[in-house]
User: Fold these one by one.
Assistant:
Number 1:
Amino acid sequence: MTTHFSRRHWLTTTATILGSSPFWAHAAEKSAAPRFELPALPWDAAALDPVISASTIGQHHGKHHAAYVNNLNRLLPSSPLMDASSLVDVIQRSARNDAQRAIFNNAAQVWNHTFYWQSLRPKGGGTPPSELAKRIDADFGSLAALREATLSASTDQFGAGWVWLVLDKTQKKLAVVKTGNADTPLTQENLVPLATIDVWEHAYYLDYQSRRKDYAAAVFDKLLNWDFVAANLAKA
Ligand code: MN
């Protein structure tokens, strides 16, 4: 009992001394890495039902997306990226660097998911705004052809990943690309992401089991936020 009390007393005293020391305070300030927060969903968790259920959204945002944010905040302070200026800066500096693979995976997944929520909206899909519709016709032939390219990419992606509508600045054309796991078009200089569909199983398994194509079709037809696509294209 006496030993226990003494030890606790010693720890309290030491913490007080360190806490009040200017050196300690300075060191704490210097090691302050950016901290990221889980962004709120742009709509109510039940708002996409029945295309994507409230339970899928609850798990996906509250567990998966949140875990990526927490992992990133845990990994950053002891990394060479603790002076990063933004999430995109973290992603671009850790890309293709094996030593920073865990940071890249979590940072990219934080960004990808935030972008995915914005790519969806209740009563989405349908006809794009007229300027965008013309651009889609010029670059894909038709909206139906873009839809087919999107569904093919979703089923061609082997394992977990993402399907993206992007602007390819080199080709000066809209394009559909897929990326595996956490990979994101942000790491390719010529690509500007315009919208994305998450094709990890956790995005659709509760609602569609293994029917990934049905999920991608339902998202394209009923949830895709064309105004978000148009706004991203306008500032690309
Ligand atoms: Mn996901």
Note: Strands lie at 161-168, 173-180, 191-198.
Number 2:
Amino acid sequence: MGYRVAIVGATGEVGRTFLKVLEERNFPVDELILFASERSEGSKLTFKGEEHEVRALNKQPNFKGIDIALFSAGGSISKEFAPKFAEDGAVVVDNSSAWRMDPDVPLVVPEVNPQDVHMFDKKRIIANPNCSTIQMVVALKPIYDEAGINRVVVATYQSVSGAGAKAIRELEEQTRAWCEGRPIPEPKHIAKQIAFNAVPHIDVFMDSDYTKEELKMLNETRKIMHDDNIKVSATAVRVPVFYSHSEAVHIETKRAISPERARELLSRAPGVVVVDDPHGGAYPTAIDAAGRDEVFVGRVREDIAFTPGLAMWVVADNIRKGAATNAVQIAELLVKEGLV
Ligand code: 2RA
């Protein structure tokens, strides 16, 4: 038996990747219904060799008959439309930040807290965490289970695709201008020039002077791990990379854990690939992770500032594991658990 699956925000970076991932993982789709803004109405996207026409979300009278709706259309669209889909019977898996901290909405990373999908029924909405949180918690989970975690200090190196297709073009255009000796165009989609730069400003600044992106890494980690005592201090940085976020993660554990044991646990953890032979030149980079669904971990070592503690380098494709793949895995869990 298959499902009627809707994609909201189908023409965006994540929307298009939903299609690829559903196809690659052979998700049981009986019917696919694609929605986007009026601007994209009538455009066509291919799924399993067949073209599907994109409908305008705001022209749809109702959303009856949809089993699962995968949303990646921004917070305000999610706020308005996710409850409408849910009311008409769908389970919504939402990629925006609109519902993540709602106590009636589970926030799920299937490798970490799969049991939380069962709490979907209050609102029939499940939130997909932020990309930089997802890859970090996948790597933290085996360490947490073995040694406990008091605090994490993390610096991110986030690719421009996290800011959407327009930011990808911005990096391309700025780079091209520089190579051709022309003035670099003014930034429009990233706070400062991104070509040949590193910009410590993702999402808006909050009263604490942390950015919202950085606080997502604290608040979402606590919710996913069901542990309000974990402290996470993040600095989120945009770098001139197209796909994959990288993170330097420093962990103070409750109990000592050796790097060897951590590598062993990580190698066995679902969705994790350990690439860690620094002297042999083996550690993961953004380019290695791009197009892949796993979280890559390397540079595992004893932290010299946190005792006991570990340091590691965590890389994942932000559009795949950080967004589309995680959402499709949640849909798979719903199917497996008989919830749709
Ligand atoms: C970014 N975290 O990389 C965002 C995308 N969700 O900007």
Note: The CA atoms of residues 158 and 238 lie 5 Å apart.
